[in-house]
């Protein structure tokens, strides 16, 4: 693999590139950019809460207001 040279003397090592794909005609297409970071689960653990009655039915007056009655 070759390094990519950009203006102002910036170069990108192939290991730092983003997604690379080849279309059906065989011409390579490079998307230069940062790779996607992995999803980290549990980052906000203990910092958010959901009420116990979160999925309880709405009272009739609120339901009517949402439905425009």
Quaternary state reads single chain
Helix share, percent: 10-25%
Largest sheet: 2 strands, antiparallel
**Tally of helical segments:** 1
Q: β content, as a range?
A: 5-15%
Helix-strand sequence: EEEEH
Shape: elongated
Overall pLDDT level = 76
* Number of β-strand runs: 4
Spans with pLDDT under 50 lasting ≥5 residues?
A: none
Class based on secondary structure composition and strand pairing: little secondary structure
Distance between the amino and carboxyl termini = 65 Å
Radius of gyration of CA atoms, rounded to a whole number: 25 Å
Strand order of the largest sheet: 1-2
Describe the structure.
The chain has 69 residues and is largely without helices or strands. The protein has a domain at 43-69. It has one helix at 60-67; strands at 4-5, 11-12, 20-21, 29-30. Strands 1-2 form a two-stranded antiparallel sheet. The protein has a two-stranded antiparallel sheet with strand order 3-4. The longest helix has 8 residues, at 60-67. The protein is elongated, with a radius of gyration of 25 Å. The mean pLDDT is 76.
Give a concise summary.
This protein has 69 residues and is mostly loops. 12% of the residues lie in helices and 12% in strands.
Layout of helices and strands, plus pairs?
Elements: E1 4-5, E2 11-12, E3 20-21, E4 29-30, H1 60-67
Features:
two-stranded antiparallel sheet
